[in-house]
Amino acid sequence: MPTEEPSDRQRNEHGQYSDRLPAKEAFGVFEDRADQGRPLTANDVMEVLDCSRRTAHNKLNELVELDMLATRKVGARGRVWWIPIEGTESMDDADAEPDVDRDIFDDVELPGTGSTLESRQNALRAAYDYLVEHPSAKKADFLQDVFPEHPAGYETADGWWNAIQPALKDLPGVDPPKERGHIWHFLGG
Question: Rounded to whole angstroms, how far apart are CA atoms 55 and 62?
């Protein structure tokens, strides 16, 4: 999709933005819109800020942590954000699925492209789901219970773990071990 105006943001020699977007710029997207009652998606924020999906999600999640925005899952893979009205309780249903934005698996940095990248995103999703179901797990548990069904193009379990674990530790609710070989915990939802 061509943009109407070129971005004023500077890029480095790899084509990546060299400046960092403060979360307040993402919040500005909510303040500057005509319909203040309409929730926004990550795509809405991406378009206004001319940033990646991962950057938009990171900034939106920062704003949620600061209680400046509220969020809710809509549909199988969608999520919306809004400025909460003071004095109201969260609108999340008690019976709702765990508060995990499934798009986060599409935005993580994993090696590969195309179908290889997709299989590695699915392997990461499987490792995360495993940790949600088993809130205290060791590396050996992931290698025994997740790797065989989701090898993601890796021939060895150690190669698989070297790609998956750095991304896994950055996912919401994950508390990685402080030392090698110790227990991973899931603290979220």
Answer: 11
